[in-house]
Amino acid sequence: MKYVVILGDGMADYRQPSLNGKTPLMLAKKPNIDSLCPISEIGLCKTVPCGVKPGSDVANLSVLGYDIKECYTGRSPLEAASIGISLKDTDVTARANLVTLTEEEVFEDKTMVDYSAGEISTEEAKALIETLAKELNTSALKLYAGISYRHCLVVDNGTIAGDLTPPHDITGKAIKGHLPTSAQGQIYLDLMKKSVQILKDHPVNIARVKAGKRPANSLWFWGEGTKPSLQNFYERYGIKGAMISAVDLLKGIGKLADMSVIEVEGATGNYDTNFTGKANACIDALKNGVDYVYIHMEAPDECGHHGDAEKKIYSIEQIDEKVVGPILSYLRESKEDFAMLICPDHPTPISIMTHCADPVPYVIYKSNKKVNGTANTYTEEQAENSGNFIESGVMLMQKFLEK
């Protein structure tokens, strides 16, 4: 039996007036996914427990079948694992975004323009982080370069600030009122202020402005945590697992769970990612003895954060055409029994441009167990109308694997 998870990050949404009262899932042309609905189980699953912030970290761990109450220590440590940072038990890490802020003289008067600094390239970001590290690193504070705008700060013998705001939650808003005030938070705030002075005349930013791009003119810290520990995926489920993703968060989860982490050339974490490459990587993994492949695609989430309905619809269509379609064709031709789970980790509605904890629509198809489905298309409404509700990601995984 082969298992494939198609995870469209942030794919679910709310009905939008700008879309004639529909959601991107309702408008997207997705014949491959829709063809499964009449012979699959469709429903809603609560992937984010009550009282927990709806981040991609907790939501993806949940869909992977991990109980976050047992294993979750913060987002940044998961990303640190992907970068290859070896953490001590006393270390605290924080995600370090390169962001674009407005140019007021007083830091507190600035506004968050772009949490990703215009989707800055990894090459440009590396040059900026290297300069910042030379200026800001101490024996207790160390910056590490990641991918695009996503980087990492490690604090030796640190404490949890507890009052850090994700920058994608405040796009277009004044940062005053969203700045840290705790003792540890003041350390982060000081670094952020210093970063503005270091970055403002950096050659990378000068070139970006000349090219009409947004400058990465500040660091922004959030997602802190401590050294994590995940149960080995094979020991947990008795099957060989592989992770395919463009982002450090999912790669880190895969590494910590001792899954095979497969790199795909041209994978960007956005709507221009190499969708075909991800599908081919999945097929190759299945051919080479992997039982379970988790294909994570960040594109719908990024489009949701930018409030871009058109590109969110496009991303969903690309997932259907270039990922779901080819994988289904291969699996059917292989004549081996297989199961496919299609779902988001959480919704990222374009109207609010951030995550929410609403239950997500799922589809579970099993080649050896045809069912009379309750839907003919994959949408939030059809999932809700089915009456099927799964209370947690752990239970979703158990249903999917029949464990």
How would you characterize the overall build of this protein?
With 403 residues, the chain is of the alpha/beta class. It has 2 domains: 2-72 and 230-401, Alkaline Phosphatase, subunit A (3-Layer(aba) Sandwich), CATH 3.40.720.10; 82-226, no CATH class. It has helices at 24-27, 31-36, 56-63, 68-71, 76-83, 122-136, 183-199, 203-210, 233-237, 248-256, 275-287, 299-305, 309-334, 380-385, 393-401, and strands at 2-8, 41-45, 92-101, 112-114, 141-147, 150-155, 218-226, 241-244, 260-262, 292-297, 338-343, 360-366, 389-390. Strands 9-8-10-1-11-12-2-13 form an 8-stranded mixed β-sheet, sandwiched between helices. α5 crosses α10 and α12 (299-305) runs antiparallel to α13 (309-334).
- What CATH calls the topology of the largest domain is Alkaline Phosphatase, subunit A
Give helix and strand order, one letter per element, not per position. EHHEHHHEEHEEHHEHEHEHEHHEEHEH
Strand content: 15-25%
User: Number of folding domains?
Assistant: 2
State the helicity in percent bands. 25-40%
Compose a concise summary of this entry.
The protein has 403 residues and is an alpha/beta fold. The chain has helices at 24-27, 31-36, 56-63, 68-71, 76-83, 122-136, 183-199, 203-210, 233-237, 248-256, 275-287, 299-305, 309-334, 380-385, 393-401, and strands at 2-8, 41-45, 92-101, 112-114, 141-147, 150-155, 218-226, 241-244, 260-262, 292-297, 338-343, 360-366, 389-390. The chain contains 15 helices and 13 strands.
